Give the backbone structure.
Amino acid sequence: MLNYFSSYLVMACIYSIMALALNLQWGFTGLMNFGIGAFYMLGAYTSAILTGAPTTEHIGGYNLPVLVGLIGAAIIPGIIAYLLAYPALSLRGGTFAIALLAIQETIYLIIKNESWLTNGVWGIRGIPRPFFNSVNPRHYVFVYLIIVIFALIVTYIAIEKAVNSPWGRVLRGIREDEYLTSMSGKDSFKYRRQSFVFSSMVIGVAGALYVHYTGFVSPQVFSPLMSTFIVWLMVMVGGTGNNKGVILGAFLIWAIWVGSDFVTDLVPAAIATRIGFIRMLFVG
């Protein structure tokens, strides 16, 4: 039971990091990004390819240190976000959101079908788990919990300082009235691009933290519900523009999601078989 609760905390921390990044985009900059799962995937697969064991099944298997994988998981999504910023940020509102969702689905299909690159639907195994060989495997979840808590604290402090700096005040100005902010001499496109790229890098690191916890990654993990829309719900529940609130929202929504597994033992079998659908209806 303690291991299960610790596993819940690990995933809640990872989702909290994603929620903080999305909150920077939407809550402070006004970017409605429905494609955050794309950068989650890119970060996860980048780190898996860089740090995984040597293999002939797909590209990569460089067996590099986990820290290198985490750095790569920030850099690659950052580069992709920078390149996408020029066409994507010219769009507004719902059009921007749908465009990013389409890009997410495109990246998902590439990951799923290009076996030479990602091993396709079979996924990548043997992803190293930091300090795994130094502890009892049954207790590893506690070690990893410390790692993700540290990552969450660093992310929170970095984003909190950013949004309370002059840079963050410009972002809030863009969110409230982009035209007026531009008239005051600020390059709104540059600031929006910076917010977009930085947030995408943070989401990429969250993807790397996930795969180094599970030791395995496959396309099935990155459904739009579990990699994008559940994070949006966490931000909405926690309070848009409230960094502490979105962390609380992440822990609450993930508790509801995993807690519903226990409900199946308490309800009639006819209802228990439908718990998954009820959960998706409630959360989605």
Summary: Residues 2-222 form one domain. The mean pLDDT is 93. The longest strand covers residues 124-125. The CA atoms of residues 86 and 193 lie 8 Å apart.
